Amino acid sequence: MIRSGRACALALAAAGALSAGGCASVRGLWQEASNRDMTNRVAPALQSTAWIHCDANAPAPALAGRWTLLAFFDPQSSATAERLAELSRIQDEFQPDGVVVFGITEVDRERTAYFLEEEPVRFSVLAGARADRVAFGIKNLWEPVVYLVDPYERILAKGLAASRGLLQEKFGH
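Above: the chain sequence. Below: its structure as tokens.
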């Protein structure tokens, strides 16, 4: 018997979404339910300082004054490589408009640098950022969690598709 409201809502959502073909797994629904939605809030300041710059021309790591995609990821997740490649394509497409992509992981700098040697990433990555993950309300990273932050440091969208859509609307791509 399901007793908690959250578990009940999750079970109903899973049954409806899975029967309608709207979701690949209950695990995906659980991730969405367990990660706090920060949309329409001011982005917490990034606390970690272990930056790895994958591009010599990488901008300074700051949120204020620019459109920023923050991509929280776990290098050990199977979904990470595909999402990071997509984020690199977005960086290339919107960089002329001043959009910046930052990857964020709680894995230490050395292991993250080793992981990035194999991935086609052209944006800066913040390593050892457990406190940043917690500040953004992210409990798990089975798949990367992406937030779009505007120049006033407000989070406008959660998710890669929603973020890309807003950027395309804003910059006319």
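The helical segments are 5-19, 26-34, 80-94, 109-116, 130-135, 160-171.
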